[in-house]
């Protein structure tokens, strides 16, 4: 129904962003809300997927058409809903994902939140060879911010929202204590550690 939306980014939370367009504020669920931090109060274009359920209408947003295409492939797998698909995309490791699917690496796929053995096997069956056209996007150079601990807290909150357990994040938090980085970089680094 919707392909994309252009508007001003007015709010960032652990689970979603708010984009104002035509006087309306649209809640858009995204994989890593804090990856939009440097665009707050700026106009941007978000690619959309619209989900209509009996009890809700939800918008899922993506930086690029490629990211949206990966999401659509993921939710086509039985057992993977939009929330799980966003958690997989948030790891920002398309190369690793494609390789794991093509090599039937079920163990690797099970490291994503809410992905059990059965679902991982289904991913391999349904998606093998289907990601060939997607090239991994280059990570955007994130600007280091001097907020340090505040950014770390935001990163931990976002990871909890993606479905990781507090006990898992406790170990990760210790690793980053005393460091200074952007929320986006903390999330990316933590996700890489969590799926290893």
Automatic annotation (TrEMBL):
Q: Where do the coiled-coil regions begin and end?
A: none
* Recorded superkingdom: Bacteria
* SMART domains in UniProt: HhH1 (SM00278)
Q: Which GO terms describe its biological process?
A: DNA recombination; DNA repair
Q: Which Pfam families has this protein been placed in?
A: HHH_5, RuvA_C, RuvA_N
Arranged from A to Z, the UniProt key words for this protein are:
ATP-binding, Cytoplasm, DNA damage, DNA recombination, DNA repair, DNA-binding, Helicase, Hydrolase, Nucleotide-binding
The annotated region (Domain III) lies at 147-196
Q: Which InterPro entries would you find in this protein's record?
A: DNA_helicase_Holl-junc_RuvA_I, Hlx-hairpin-Hlx_DNA-bd_motif, NA-bd_OB-fold, RuvA, RuvA_2-like, RuvA_C, RuvA_C_sf
Describe the task this protein carries out. Answer: The RuvA-RuvB-RuvC complex processes Holliday junction (HJ) DNA during genetic recombination and DNA repair, while the RuvA-RuvB complex plays an important role in the rescue of blocked DNA replication forks via replication fork reversal (RFR). RuvA specifically binds to HJ cruciform DNA, conferring on it an open structure. The RuvB hexamer acts as an ATP-dependent pump, pulling dsDNA into and through the RuvAB complex. HJ branch migration allows RuvC to scan DNA until it finds its consensus sequence, where it cleaves and resolves the cruciform DNA.
How would you summarize the oligomeric state and partners of this protein? Homotetramer. Forms an RuvA(8)-RuvB(12)-Holliday junction (HJ) complex. HJ DNA is sandwiched between 2 RuvA tetramers; dsDNA enters through RuvA and exits via RuvB. An RuvB hexamer assembles on each DNA strand where it exits the tetramer. Each RuvB hexamer is contacted by two RuvA subunits (via domain III) on 2 adjacent RuvB subunits; this complex drives branch migration. In the full resolvosome a probable DNA-RuvA(4)-RuvB(12)-RuvC(2) complex forms which resolves the HJ.
Q: What does the entry note on its domains?
A: Has three domains with a flexible linker between the domains II and III and assumes an 'L' shape. Domain III is highly mobile and contacts RuvB.
The record's comment on protein family reads: Belongs to the RuvA family.
Q: Would you tell me the protein name for this molecule?
A: Holliday junction branch migration complex subunit RuvA
Organism the protein comes from: Streptococcus ferus
Gene coding for it = ruvA
């Amino acid at each position: 129904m919707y392909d994309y939306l252009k508007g001003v980014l007015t709010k960032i939370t652990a689970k979603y962003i708010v984009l104002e367009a035509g006087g309306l504020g649209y809640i858009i669920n995204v994989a890593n809300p804090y990856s939009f931090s440097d665009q707050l109060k700026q106009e941007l274009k978000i690619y959309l997927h619209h989900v209509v359920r009996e009890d809700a209408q939800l918008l899922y947003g993506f930086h690029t058409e490629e990211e949206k295409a990966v999401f659509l492939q993921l939710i086509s797998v039985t057992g993977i809903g939009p929330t799980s698909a966003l958690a997989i995309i948030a790891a920002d490791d398309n190369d690793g994902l494609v390789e794991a699917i093509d090599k039937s690496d079920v163990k690797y796929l099970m490291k994503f939140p809410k992905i059990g053995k059965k679902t991982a096997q289904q991913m391999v069956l349904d998606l093998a060879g289907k990601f060939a056209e997607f090239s991994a996007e280059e990570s955007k150079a994130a600007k280091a911010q001097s907020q340090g601990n505040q950014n770390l807290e935001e990163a931990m909150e976002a990871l909890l929202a993606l479905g990781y357990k507090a006990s898992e994040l406790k170990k990760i938090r210790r690793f980053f204590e005393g460091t200074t980085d952007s929320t986006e970089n903390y999330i990316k680094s933590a996700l890489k550690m969590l799926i290893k």
